[in-house]
Amino acid sequence: MKAQAIVAAVLLLLVPGLSLAAGPISADETGERRLGICAAISAVPLVAGDSGPETPLSATKYNDTFDSGFGLRLELFRDWNPSLRLCLGGVWNGWNGKSFTGGEFPGGAEFGDFYIAGLYAGGRIAFFRGSRLRPYILGNLGVVYMPSVDVTTGGKKIPYWGEFLRDFLELGAGAEYSLSDRAFVFADVRFTAFGAPRGQNYPISEATGGQCVPISLGLGFRF
């Protein structure tokens, strides 16, 4: 997507400047409880879940009705020790609706855009203490908001899902590379699950929770 390319280019321009400004990396970690902030952009394919009711043949899947999306993430964190990081974060993932024929829409339908915006708390455990390159695992729990989604069929727009708040679970793994004592870049892959939307037109809008896999590239700074 064009937006992803623009944000990626900005990150690439910022990395060298942060590296020079933050100074050299320390030879060893002190174990100080340091605060920091990090941001990331993500490609976000929908991989599982039914966006429509089950029929005798099959159920309509999220990736039948929405394109692969893109996301933004911002986290505030505290390095509790050199291995454990606690975080509070916000995430936005969005997907463009697409045309679909089948299931409850044998004549075809055009789905509106769909996004989730959430807040979460979680933690991360990093390995290879003292190394510039540190693989890690993570887990987050939170809540997400989704606005209403409409669908256009037979020349008529009808409500499909209503606004909702649902639970949010995230598990993932990645690696962080220290550019200096303060600045770092990271990349990770996460499995994200969110609760079922609130259908507005039963039975055609009945859905299950969805699952997506954000693939992220980010930049962080320790204070």
Note the main attributes of this structure.
223 residues; mainly beta; Porin; 8-stranded antiparallel β-barrel; 2 helices
In short:
With 223 residues, the chain is mostly beta strands.
Outline the structure in words.
It is a single chain. The chain is mainly β and about 220 residues long. The protein has a single domain (about 1-25, about 35-220), classed as Porin (Beta Barrel). The chain has helices at about 1-20, 60-65, and strands at about 35-45, 45-50, 50-55, 60, 70-80, 85-95, 100, 105-110, 115-125, 135-145, 150-155, 155-160, 165-180, 185-195, 200, 210, 215-220. The strands form 3 sheets. An 8-stranded antiparallel β-barrel has the order 1-5-6-9-10-13-14-17. Strands 7-8-11-12-15 form a 5-stranded antiparallel sheet, with no helix packed on it. A two-stranded antiparallel ribbon has the order 3-4. Strand 3 and strand 4 (about 60) form a beta hairpin. The longest helix has 21 residues, at about 1-20. It is elongated, with a radius of gyration of 20 Å.
